[in-house]
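#struct-pred
JK: can someone run the complex with iron/sulfur cluster? inputs below
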Amino acid sequence: MITDVEPIITARFDQPDAHTIDGYERTGGYQALRQVLASWSPARVAEEIKDASLLGRGGAGFPAGVKWGFCPPGVWPRYLVVNGDESEPGTYKDRLLLERDPHQLIEGVLIASYAVGAAQAFIYIRGEMALAQERMAQALNDAYARGYIGKNILGSAFSIDVVMAWGAGAYIVGEETALIESLEGNRGMPRLKPPFFPAAKGLYMQPTIVNNVETLSNVPWIVRHGAAKFTALGAEASKGTRVFAVSGHVNKPGVYEVEFGVTTFRDIIMDPAYAGGIRDGNQLKCFIPGGASAPWFFEEHLDLPLEKGTVDRAGSMLGSGAIVVMDHTTDAVKACMAVVRFFAHESCGKCTPCREGTTWLERILRRILDGYGRPSDLDLLMDVADNISPGIAWPPKQTTICPLGPSAVSPLSSALGRFRGEFEAYIARAEAARAEQPVVLAGAHAHAHDHGHDHDHDHDHGGHH
Amino acid sequence: MTDTSEAPPVDGVPVTIDGVEILAAKGELIIDAAERNGVYIPRFCYHPRMEPVGMCRMCIAEVDTGRGPALQPTCMLECTPGMVVHTDSEVTKKAQEGVLEFLLINHPLDCPVCDKGGECPLQDQAVSHGPGESRFVEEKRHKEKPIPVSDLVLLDRERCILCDRCTRFAKDVAGDPLIHFINRGNNTEVNTFPGEPFASYFSGNTVQICPVGALTSSDYRFKARPWDLEKTESTCTTCAVGCRVSIESSRNEVLRYQGVDIDPVNWGWLCDKGRYNLAALDSESRLRDPLVKGPGGAFEVARWSDALRAAANAIQAGLDAGGPGAVAFLGGARLTNESAYAFTKLAKGVIGTDHVDCQLADGMPAEAVLGLPKATIDDVCAPGGTVLLIGPDLKEELPVLFLRLRHAVLRDGVRLVQLTSVPNGCSSLASVVLQHRPGEAHEVVRALFADIPAGRDGGGVNPQALDQARALLRSAGDPTAILGRQSIAEGAEWVLDAATALLDAAPATRFLTAVRRGNTHGALDMGMAPGLLPGRATLAEGRDWFAPRWPTVPAAAGHDAVGILQAAAAGQIHTLVLLGADPLTDFPDRQLAARALSTVPNLVAVDLYITESVQHASVVLAAAGFGEIDGTTTNLEGRVSVLNQKVTPPGTARADWEIAAELALRLGSDLQVESVDDLRAEMAELAPSWAGVTDELLFSVDAADGVVLPLPTATATEPDAADADAAAAEGQSAAEGEAGESDADTPAATGPVRPGLVSFAGGEPLDPPALDAYSLRLIATRTLYDQGTFTQLTPSLAGLAPGTVLRVHAYDHDRLGVPSGTELRVKTPIGSVRAVVVTDPAVLRGTAVAVFNQPDVPLNELIDATQRVTDVRIEAGDR
Ligand SMILES: Cc1cc2nc3c(=O)[nH]c(=O)nc-3n(C[C@H](O)[C@H](O)[C@H](O)COP(=O)(O)O)c2cc1C
Ligand code: SF4
Ligand code: SF4
Ligand code: SF4
Ligand code: FES
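RT: done, C-alpha cells with the ligand placed:
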C-alpha cells in the first residue's frame, strides 16, 4: 500500500542548503536538542526512543531504545559510535543522509549520547565517501562554533566531543566490532560475541553504543513530535518510515523513504512514484530484498509488505534496506558469482571457514562459468556452504566469527535452489565439450597458470590503518 | 599448565561434556575443562599462555546453555553451570571436519620436507579429525617459499594457517609487534613491514608455538626429523632465570632446545640467546682435550694425567710459596651446584684458601643474594602487587623474567616503580620511573619513605615523580623488590645501601636478586665467595661444623674478585685458577685484570674455550658443558632444578667436579666423592641451606618445577639464631687456635650444630658520591647480545651485538661544541677509549650512557674497579 506520509529523515533532501548549519537551523534544526537539554532527563529520552520502537537500520533491526539500556550500570566512560561504513552492494542511503543532512545526524548523536551518558562520540564514515566526510567535517566544526557540541552545550551541564573517523575501504568494518577495532587503530577484524558485545565491552573495552546513520537520524524527529506520532506510522514491529535504496534493472533506481511496514515490494519496485518498474518492460526474475547478504525473493514475494517480521518469516530480511532487482535477462550463475565474489573479496581473513570457504565457493563458480564444471560441483558447493553455515537455514547458523561468511551462502542457496537448471546447463555444456575433445584440460589443470588467483584479480586494500 | 592430574576444585561449575558431568573450575574454558577430564578438543589458535582469539574455529563444538545447542568455539567460552557440550555429535564432527578441510585446501603437500612433519598439530589433527580426502581440485595458493623475517626465523607463508599465535605472541607476550597480518581474506598473510625485521629477543618462541611448519629456525632447518629426536628435560643456564628446557638431540648431537612450560618460572618461553646458543657448545673452538703450555709458549694437547699433574703442581707451587693465601679461584657461575661444591671443597677444604669468588665484581655481594628476605618470581608477579625495580634492564639481562613482569603489569595489575639512571626496556611498564644520578639509588629509596634531608636532593629525581611514587607506595601493601646492578661502572655498595634503606623503611619487603650469570646463586650457595662455606653459612659460623668434616677450613676470610686481582697484580697470589672466568673481558677493570694475569706466576684454567684470559694460562683443563653432564642448578630465586645429560662431552673433556676431585687427589687429599649423587648427598648433609634436599625429593613429580631453598621444613627445624651465633662464636675461637689442624673425628652427638643461614646485616648509610662538575658520570649498561663467549661462538647470534655509542644530554653535548654523532676521546684517570658521542634527551644531565662489552668501545678500559663511580671526560679537541 502506498501512503502519502510526510518524509521524516529525507525531508530536507530537496533543500539545497540543508547541509549547512544555517539551512538546518532554519528548518527546525537543533530544536530537539534544545528541548532535551532544557527539560528532559536522559532516562526520559531513552524512554521516548524505546516507546517509538525505533528499529536499528544498519541490518539487524534491533530496537535502538532497548540497546541503549544495555550499558552495564555504573561503568564509565561510555562511548557512542555512529556506523557510517555503508558498503553493502546496492546500499547508499546513509551516504545521502550524511551528504545532504549531516546536522540531522549530529543532533541525533548528541541526543543519543545524552541519553546513554556517552563521554565522546565517533562518527565513522566509509573511506570512499569523500563528499560525506567533507560535509560532516564542516558540519561538526559549525556545530562546535555555535555551541551545540563541546563543553556545557547550550548552557547545560552536558558536555561531549564528537569526532569523525574514516575507514580505508573494507566492507567488514561495517560490522560493529570490526569498526571498533578500526577506530582503535587496529586491523578491521570482528571480535567475538560473546564476550565482546559492544554495549558491555566495546571501544577500549568500555560500554559502547553502535548505531547506524539512519537510525540516529530519526531521533530528532521523534523527540520533537513524540513517540506516539512515530508509532502511528508503520505496522506491526516496523514503525515510522524507512529509507530503501532500490537498484538493479528498474527504471528509476533511487533512495525512497516510505512508510515502514505497509508499503509492499511491488509498490516500491513497480510504482511510478518510486522505482517505476522493470527496465525495458522486462519480466522480474528475482530481487534481493535487503542487501547482498539477504536470501533472494521472487515474483511470489512481491506483495509482501516491507515489514521486518513478515520478511523474516518469509525467509529473508530487510537488512540494510537495499533492494536489488534482476530481470529475466539475468544469468543466475553470474549473478550468484558476483555476490559470492564480493563476500570472498571482503572477507577479513580472520576465521578459517570464511577465509578459505568463501574463496573456494568463488573458485568453483568461476570454474563452472569458465566451462570446467563437473556434475559433482553442485553438491560440493552446497556442502562447502554447509561447512560455513551449517544447515543452510534462515536465520543462518555459522561456523564463522561474524555473519559475513554465511552471507556468501545466501546468494548461492537462493540461486541454486531456484535456478539449478542454469547451473546444470553450464556443466552440461562443459561435459559436452569434454566429450568432443577428450584431452581437454580438467579444471585443476586449466588453472595451473593462474597460481590460485582470481581471474580478475583485485588489489586488496588490506584492513584498516 | 600441563598438569592434568590436578584434582578438580571442590566448589566447581558442573557441566556435562559428552554425557559425563564434570566439575569445571570457575572461569575455566570449556577446552581446558574438557582436556582435564580426558576429552581432547582439537585446536590450532588456542594457546594456554595467551589470550584466546577463537580464530581457527577448529575447536568449535555444540554447546547448549539452555537455549538449544549452538556451535561455539570452546576456547573462548567459559564453563557456566548446567552447560551441555557435545564434542562428538554429528554436527560438531561435521563442523570440525569442515574446518580441517578448509585449512588443508591451500596447505602445500610439504610434509616430507617440512621440519614440523612428525610433530605437526595440523598433520595429527588431519588424521584424527579430518575429512580423509580432498575435494579441492583448484590450484593451491602460491607464495615465495621461506622468506627470512629476522636473522633467526624464516617464514613459509604457504604453510601458514593464520592462527595468530606468532603475531599474538609478538604483540601481547613479547611486546614486539613486528609481525602482522597483512592483506585480507584469502590473501591474508603474516609478514613484517618492509625494513623492519622481526628483531625480537623472543622470536624463537614463535617457531616453537607455530602449529605448522610455517616458522622455522634458521639454525635447525632440515637438521632432523622429530621421530629421530631424543629429548630430556633440563634448565637453561645461560642466565639466572633458569628457564626449563627440553634438550633435543640426535646421534649424540644437540639439535635444539624447546621451552618447557613450568608455572613458577618460564611458562614455556625462552629467550633467543638461551634457545640458540647451543651452537657454541658444538663450536670449532670448543676444547676437546686438556692443554699444557710447552716450552715455546704454545699450547700443546696433553694427556689428562699430565695436565692434572701440571695443574696440581701449579697449585702446590703456590702453596709452597705463600701458603693457602697464595692460591685463589675466580669464577664458577658456569658450574653445576655439585661441581661448585666440589671446587669449594677443593679450594677451601683441601687447599685452605678463602680467596674464592664466583663473580667478577659485576654481580651482587653474596650477603645480599643469600641473606636478604627472599621473593620468588611468582611473589614478584603476584596480581595486584607493587614492585620496586632497582637494578638492570631485565629485558637485556634476564629476558624471560622481563616477560613474566610484563605479563604481571599488563594483565595482573602489578604496579612497577622503577629506580634507574637511564630509562630502559622496562620503563614503559613502570607506573613511575625515578631517574636518578648514578650511584644514588640509596638516596632515592630513602627519599621514598622520608623527607629529603637539607642539602640533598634525593638522587636528583623529579619531585613530581617522587610524589607519585610515594603515593603509590603508601596505597600499596608490602612491596617486593628486584634488586641488582644497573651499571657496571658503579660499585655494588650503593645497591646494598638501597636494600638497607628499604628494609629500614619497609621491613616486610622481600627481594629477588637480579644476578645475571647462570648459576651464580648456586655457586654462592656452595660457598664460592670469600667468607662463606657451603649452604649459606658464613665462614665464622660454619667453621666448627665443617672443620671436623673437611680436611681443613680457611683461617680467615679472603678476597673478593677485586681483591684477588689486586693481590695477584701485587705479586701476592702465586697461583690463580680460573673456573670458566674471563676477567680480561668480563671484569669491569681490564687494566687490573691484565696486570694480575701477567703477574701471577701460575695460571690454571678450567674452561670450554680458550678465551682471551685463558690464553695466559699454563694449563687448561677441558670441561664438559651444558647438556653433557648431570647435576643441578640454582636460579636467581634460589630454585634448585635438575640438569640432565643428553650427549657426551667432546673429546676427552670432563665434568668439572671430576677435575676438582682429581686435583684434590694429586694434592694428597681425597674429596671422597665418586659421583654427582655422592656430592649431592654430602651437600644435603653438610650444607645448611640444602638440608632435606634428597634425590628422592629432587627427582619426584612434586619437584618437577624445582625446589626453592631452603625447604620450609628445613628452616623450621633449624636452631634458632641465638644458639647458632653462640655455637659459631665458640667454634670460631677454637678454630682460630688451631687453624688447619682440626682433627677430623666424627663429631660427637654434642658436637657443633649446623650453622644458621647467612642474613643480610646492612651497613651504615652511605653519603652520595661526590660530584665533579667537569665530568660526566658513566652508566655502563648491558645488552642481551654482547662480546660474551657463548654469543660470539654462536654464528646466528654473534652479529647481533649492537655495538655502542656514548649517549649524553644535549646540555652537556653543547659544551663539546661538535655535532652529535662525532667520534671523540673519552677519558678517565686510568684509561681512554674512542666513542661516537650522541645526544639523547632521555639521558640525565651530568651522565653518560654506554653499553658494556660491545665491539669497538672497550668500556673496561675506563672503569677503575676500586672506585665506587666512574667519571669520564670527553675531549672534543682531540678528534
Ligand atoms: C558484515 C557486516 C557488515 C555490516 N555493515 C554495516 C554497515 O555498513 N552499516 C551499518 O550501519 N551496519 C552494518 N552492520 C551491522 C552492524 O554490525 C550493527 O549491527 C549496526 O551498525 C547497529 O546499528 P543499528 O542498531 O542502528 O542498526 C554490518 C554487519 C555485518 C555482520
Ligand atoms: S566471518 Fe569472514 S569477515 Fe567475519 S570474522 Fe570470519 S573471516 Fe572475518
Ligand atoms: S606462521 Fe605459524 S604461528 Fe604464525 S599465524 Fe601462521 S601458522 Fe600461526
Ligand atoms: S631467560 Fe635466561 S634462562 Fe631463560 S632462556 Fe633466556 S638465557 Fe636461558
Ligand atoms: S582453538 Fe578455538 S578457535 Fe582456534
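RT: quick notes.
The radius of gyration of chain A is 23 Å.
Residues 409-436 of chain A form the longest helix (28 residues).
JK: thanks, will look after standup
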